[in-house]
Design a protein that fits this description.
mainly beta, elongated, 7-stranded mixed sheet
C-alpha cells in the first residue's frame, strides 16, 4: 500500500558526487523514519543513513562527513547527497520507510533499489 520510487543512481568517477531521491506514495498518515541502505556484491545489506520525522539523523561510520540525508515531509521524500565517493561505495542503494497508514496500521516499505557505481 506504500510505494517507494528511487532515482538518482548512476556511474561516477572516484571523488565525484551523486544525489539519490526516494518518494513515498500511498495511503500514508505519517512517516516516522526514512533511510537508505546499501548492498554491495557478496555483502549483506547495511544501513547507510536514517532520518526521523523530526530531522534527527544517524550515519554509518564509513560515510560520516561525506553523505548527507535530508527529507521533505510535505512531499514524503528523502534524499541522500553522496560526496567524495570511492569504490567502496559501489552498491545497490535501497530506500526504506516506516510509519503509519491511514488505516492506523504500521507499515514498512522498501524501494526497488538504484545502482551507484564508482569507477574510473
Amino acid at each position: 500500500q506504500v510505494q517507494l520510487v528511487e532515482s538518482g543512481g548512476g556511474l561516477v568517477q572516484p571523488g565525484g558526487s551523486l544525489r539519490l531521491s526516494c518518494a513515498a506514495s500511498g495511503s500514508i498518515l505519517s512517516i516516522n523514519a526514512m533511510g537508505w541502505y546499501r548492498q554491495a556484491p557478496g555483502k549483506s545489506r547495511e544501513l547507510v543513513a536514517v532520518i526521523t520525522k523530526g530531522g534527527s539523523t544517524n550515519y554509518v561510520d564509513s560515510v560520516k562527513g561525506r553523505f548527507t540525508i535530508s527529507r521533505d515531509n510535505a512531499k514524503n521524500t528523502v534524499y541522500l547527497q553522496m560526496n567524495r565517493l570511492n569504490a567502496e561505495d559501489t552498491a545497490v542503494y535501497y530506500c526504506n520507510a516506516k510509519g503509519l497508514l491511514a488505516t492506523m496500521r504500521l507499515f514498512e516499505s522498501w524501494g526497488q533499489g538504484t545502482q551507484a557505481t564508482v569507477s574510473s
